[in-house]
Amino acid sequence: MSTTDTAPLPAASQDFHRLSFTGNAAEYFGIWIVNILLTIITLGIYSAWAKVRRNRYFYGNTVLLGRAFEYHAKGKQIFIGRLIVLGYLVVYNIILAVLPVAGLVLGLVVLCFFPWLIMRGLRFSARVTSYRNVRFNFAGKMGGAFIAFMAGPVMAVLSLGILAPLASRWMYRYLGNNLRYGGRSFATDPKLGSIYQTWFFSALIIVLGLLVIAVAALANLSLIVALIDNPNALPPEFQASMVVLGIVAYLAVLLSFGVAALFYRAGMRNIAWSATRFDGKHELKSDLSRFRYVWIAVSNVIITVLTLGLMRPWAAVRMARYINDHTAIRFDGDVGEILATAEQEGSAVGAEFMEFEGFDFGF
User: Fold this and answer.
1) How confident is the model at residue 110 (pLDDT cuts 50, 70, 90)?
2) Confidence at residue 253, expressed as pLDDT on a 0 to 100 scale
3) Which of 328, 267, 259 is nearest to 297 (CA)?
């Protein structure tokens, strides 16, 4: 990354400056395969250090204005966090087996701490990330985490997805309004109407998928009823056909919901990022093509499965490159002066973060 670290900054401009990803699949494959092998050999212990190596590679190849992001977490921090979680799970299951009531109570107690764990995880992830030697930070509180990551999803499920856009808005506002870069803050306020527009398209995909399944089921209704009443009344070939039909219907449901979720994710990202401002005046932008994003995600899964996982590094690099190419920021004023000021303000804060990063609990 030495060539990008010394790249000159552009002069004052009203243009959007896009991120780029400079990594490649062959390079990442070496890191990925070593991570996999060492994780297997150490019975999963090395996975904490594997996460650090992976994130350092992807952060270190994410470039803005000629400078890469950096990831400062240590494997020990992640390992300790996972040990804490693993220790809790072991104790919880023992108590649940010996004293079921006490186990349920302990589960409810931990559920109450879940927002704190989420908040701490987000803060850790932000504080171990830097750009131009300036650390990020996350200032969110437990109450906001509860609304964004617990109340919102429950409300979305109970409303059969109708209130999912409101839950998404809560989540992105919590994330965006509490993110800091040095001494300066981000702010985001995605419009609910725009979110419902992208949600409607995703909901339509689900409805059409379920409609196709319903039509297929009605076309074979007599066979389904006969199979339920007396499974032995149908010839073996018809029974096999019904089993295949059931499997296809199940996969169709998964596919329709999965594709709809990908469309919604891409649309939601565009809305939330494009509604975000840094320091009140610098605009962020995301302009992912929802169709292209879905194609990349689905084809990545297919190719990864067909190659028994060996093409996973290629798929990860492919997605990272696409997302970075469609993420940008426009600075209001001279870029050099803005970033130089941020570096001066952020140096003292960065030193403080080194002592209070804590542990990654994996949430």
Assistant:
1) confident
2) 82
3) 259
Nearest CA-CA partner of 182 in 350, 353, 358, 352: 350
DSSP secondary structure of 155-174: HHHHTTTTTHHHHHHHHHHH
Q: Say if CB 113 and CB 150 are below 8 A apart.
A: no
φ, ψ for residue 288, nearest 5 deg: -60, 140
Angle at 48 between CA 44 and CA 50, to 5 degrees: 90
Q: How far is CA 24 from CA 57, 58, 254, 307, in A?
A: 10, 10, 31, 18
pLDDT digits (tens, 9 = 90+) for 181-210: 988 899 999 999 999 999 999 999 999 888
Instruction: Return d(Cα 218, Cα 203) in angstroms, integer.
Output: 22
Show the beta-strand stretches assigned E in 83-217. Answer: 129-131, 134-138, 179-181, 184-188
Give CA angle at 305 (299, 307), nearest 5°. Answer: 100
Give the list of residues 6+ apart from residue 102 with CB closer than 8 angstroms, or none: 95, 96
d(CA 281, CA 186): 10
DSSP category for residue 148? I
